[in-house]
Amino acid sequence: MAYWDRKHFHDNRSWGSWCSATALAIGLILTAVSSWGHSFPDHSEPRVGWAVDTPPAQVRIWFDVPIESIFSTIKVVDANGQQVDKLDGRVNPADHTLLEVSLPTLPPGRYRVFWNVISIDTHRTEGDYPFTIRPKP
């Protein structure tokens, strides 16, 4: 094997190792950056999937990072898809991780909460979840 061939072989191994290390580093950075940018629900009232005995006065969802008030929405619909909240969904002005909407006194039944938020660094997330109001015994 000529000198050039040995050196070329050696350079390819170094190049391959450098590429692998660089790809791994970029992958780790992109994973970390993408997880920083999105707002995800931390908890809610009523809780996801719960059945409650008393109709809630509000639906409240807390997120893991602050959200933009102008681009964040929340609504509650009944089993027929009709919006039943008081149309006052908003980000709480004192707590920018809290999205809330007021409810009238709702009858027993199944409801679904739809939310759509943009985090302060402009990443959008959305979702929905059900809750149920049980009939009085």
Give the secondary structure arrangement, pairings included.
Elements: H1 3-37, E1 41-45, E2 51-52, E3 58-63, E4 73-78, E5 90-91, E6 98-102, E7 109-118, E8 124-133
Q: If you had to describe this structure to a student in words, what would you say it looks like?
A:
The protein has 137 residues and is of the alpha+beta class. Helix content is 26%, strand content 34%. The protein is built from one helix and eight strands. The protein has one helix at 3-37; strands at residues 41-45, 51-52, 58-63, 73-78, 90-91, 98-102, 109-118, 124-133. The strands form two sheets. It has a four-stranded antiparallel β-sheet, with no helix packed on it. A four-stranded mixed β-sheet has the order 2-8-7-4, with no helix packed on it. The termini are far apart. Mean pLDDT is 84; it is low at 26-35.
Average of pLDDT: 84
Strand content: 25-35%
Helix content: 25-40%
Q: What characterizes the major β-sheet? A: 4 strands, antiparallel
What is the number of helical segments per DSSP (H or I, 4+ residues)? 1
Structural class: alpha+beta
Total number of β-strand segments? 8
Secondary-structure element string? HEEEEEEEE
> What is the approximate shape?
elongated
